[in-house]
């Protein structure tokens, strides 16, 4: 299994963004270099049904160009406020637009006292193939 590292501060920032946006899904862009998430950029969710899907606002996609210009691999993050942090059929359709791009997901389904807290997982999706990567929080 491949691994991806993320700083504790960046992991906390993604979780905070998810909590702030709940019960809607939140989304953003991820910049990756040498197996490490080194840039997070929150984006607006432009979906007409944000409670159960995300759509990155086209105005925020300019960050993809900036990340690539800076030599970063492009990835994305989004939240699942009430379900597990695993790609849904809709997430797999989105990933088809960016094959192999990192997909960081946070779930708040257990984010209550005594329930274990938020879940954070990372995937690469190619077609229908979902590969979970080992996420190291440093």
Explain what this protein looks like in three dimensions.
The chain has 138 residues and is α/β, with parallel strands linked by helices. The protein is 21% helix and 36% strand. It has helices spanning 8-21, 62-69, 89-95; strands spanning 3-6, 27-33, 36-43, 73-80, 102-107, 119-126, 129-137. Strands 1-7-6-5-4-2-3 form a 7-stranded mixed beta sheet. Strand 4, helix 3 and strand 5 (102-107) form a beta-alpha-beta unit. The longest helix has 14 residues, at 8-21. The mean pLDDT is 94.
What descriptors fit this protein?
alpha/beta, seven-stranded mixed β-sheet
Measured on Cα atoms, how large is the radius of gyration?
A: 14 Å
CATH class: Alpha Beta
Instruction: Outline the biggest β-sheet.
Output: 7 strands, mixed
Query: What is the terminal-to-terminal distance?
Result: 18 Å
- Total number of strands: 7
Helix content: 10-25%
Q: Give the name of the CATH superfamily.
A: Cytidine Deaminase, domain 2
Please report which band the strand proportion falls in: under 5%, 5-15%, 15-25%, 25-35%, 35-45% or over 45%. 35-45%
Quaternary: single chain
């Amino acid at each position: 299994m491949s691994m991806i590292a993320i700083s504790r501060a960046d992991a906390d920032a993604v979780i905070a963004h998810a909590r702030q946006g709940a019960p809607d899904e939140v989304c953003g862009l991820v910049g990756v270099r040498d197996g490490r998430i080194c840039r997070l950029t929150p984006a607006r969710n432009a979906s007409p049904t944000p409670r159960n899907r995300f759509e990155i606002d086209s105005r925020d996609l300019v960050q993809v160009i900036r990340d690539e210009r800076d030599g970063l691999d492009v990835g994305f993050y989004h939240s699942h406020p009430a379900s597990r942090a695993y790609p849904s059929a809709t997430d797999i359709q989105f990933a088809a637009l960016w094959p192999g791009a990192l997909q960081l997901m946070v779930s708040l389904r257990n984010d209550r006292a005594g329930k274990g807290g938020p879940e954070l997982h990372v995937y690469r999706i190619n077609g229908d193939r979902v590969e979970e990567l080992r996420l190291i929080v440093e």
